[in-house]
């Protein structure tokens, strides 16, 4: 259990440095209010919140914080607003109809650096990993198998590349957004096989809840999305999982807690209370004894509206790649989704999933430039300042100190050759050199530089 006594003395720190001009003397917790979990409700600028989410397993921290009373502990009364698309959730934030929301990691960067120029920011990660690529059963009939059947990616890629190219029409891959982390990882996966994402496949957008039906109807050939929607196709025997996202990039960020920069400036103490509640919920979600209960809660009609048997495998890590030979393709993957911390060779003891690594943002920026999704086709010289605004670390660091959570000494984390599916390492201090390594990119043969 988190030590709230430590949280008391940190919640009012750093406000001046962040530009806050109001509430700088607020003390979030008051001893005289112990009967309300130590929370002085009067110190919250806005105790009644609307939080947006899309129904998938990555929304578990928000849903569990609501159902298990973590929000209430911190004096928050929350309404969860369900939407079918990430764009709808984002629009509610941009128009201040929601206070904060679950969003794909990439959305704040695209909002600020893309055409919207909107001050959307990320406060913390809600989870790492948690997605997969599902193929139609026609691919199985053509001889393609789940990744676990192959010695390595090189063993897999030749057959998959031939399958994709020997078609009478472009294969159709569905995504829940062209700018989700699933989209960037799918592009990375395709290009690692020598497949150009923008010309050799057709990328289309559908809500996650529709993808299994589109696959079954033959309207798409594959889809990439967060759990548990891949397991739905596996258990219905309409498709099979080829790769899970952890195998494309081990420990990649997936969903975040997003809000508007102006909202945090107006509600600094509420921001910290919200983050503390969600960190507690993330810790709860990673306790094995809670998986069954979490699955029951997520299965409710107002949340995912799915059978528990579809939801729990992704939480517990008893993951099924295919129903063709069920025992053979059911694998134990305890780090399939990481909400706070699980044992994994690529994670250190203090490497909590919720920490907003700056190096994650650097990688994403290289991919947006690689596929020419921003106005600039070069890496910006002022990238550090831009990323500081989009993915501020101060909020998380202050809350983490109060909750006795160890903070990394360096925001930049190098990724070894074992982290990515193509065996390519990533040094976030050398983004231009990293970009120029890729033979497949939207602007080739242009050589990237700084602008």
UniProtKB/TrEMBL annotation:
Pfam families: NMT1_2. It comes from the Bacteria. Keywords: Cell inner membrane, Cell membrane, Ion transport, Membrane, Transport. SUPFAM superfamilies: Periplasmic binding protein-like II. InterPro entries: NrtA/CpmA_ABC-bd_dom. GO terms for cellular component: plasma membrane. This is NrtC-like protein.
